[in-house]
């Protein structure tokens, strides 16, 4: 059975929230790793590459935050006009 539009919206919002959490954790871990490398006078090339990885992860967090906001707004709009009989409690908990 194909997922309903409500399920699709809820699952994509859940995925984005999970991704944002993982990227935030990656930023924290990568910052620690870069600091360790600096304190141990690591190879300049390796350090530069790890800083690039850190910067890429840092750029992803605001992008995901923006996407989460957009998905929440779309879900709110969808719920305002939704007339189906599916349980919307999970959807409502995600938008709060």
Write a brief structural summary:
The chain is an all-alpha fold and 96 residues long.
Describe this structure in words.
The protein is mainly alpha-helical and 96 residues long. The chain has one domain (5-76): Methane Monooxygenase Hydroxylase, Chain G, domain 1. It is built from 3 helices and no strands. The radius of gyration is 19 Å and the shape is rod-shaped. The two termini are 29 Å apart. Keywords: Chaperone, Cytoplasm, Cytoskeleton, Microtubule. Belongs to the TBCA family. This is Tubulin-specific chaperone A.
> How large a portion of the residues is in β-strands, by DSSP E?
under 5%
Uncertain stretches = none
Pairing-aware structural class of the strands and helices? mainly alpha
What string gives the helices and strands in order?
A: HHH
- Gyration radius, rounded: 19 Å
Count structural domains. 1
**Using DSSP, what is the number of strands?**
0
Query: What is the fold named in CATH at topology level?
Result: Methane Monooxygenase Hydroxylase, Chain G, domain 1
Euclidean distance between termini CA atoms: 29 Å
Tag the structure with descriptive keywords.
single chain; 96 residues; mainly alpha; Methane Monooxygenase Hydroxylase, Chain G, domain 1; 82% helix; 0% strand; TBCA; cytoskeleton; cytoplasm; microtubule; Tubulin-specific chaperone A
């Amino acid at each position: 059975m194909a997922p309903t539009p409500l399920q699709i919206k809820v699952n994509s919002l859940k995925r984005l929230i999970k991704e944002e959490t993982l990227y935030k954790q990656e930023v924290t871990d990568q910052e620690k790793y870069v600091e360790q490398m600096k304190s141990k006078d690591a190879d300049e090339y390796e350090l530069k590459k790890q800083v690039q990885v850190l910067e890429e992860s840092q750029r992803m967090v605001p992008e995901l935050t923006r996407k989460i906001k957009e998905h929440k707004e779309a879900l709110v709009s969808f719920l305002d006009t939704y007339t189906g009989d599916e349980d919307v409690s999970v959807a409502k908990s995600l938008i709060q």
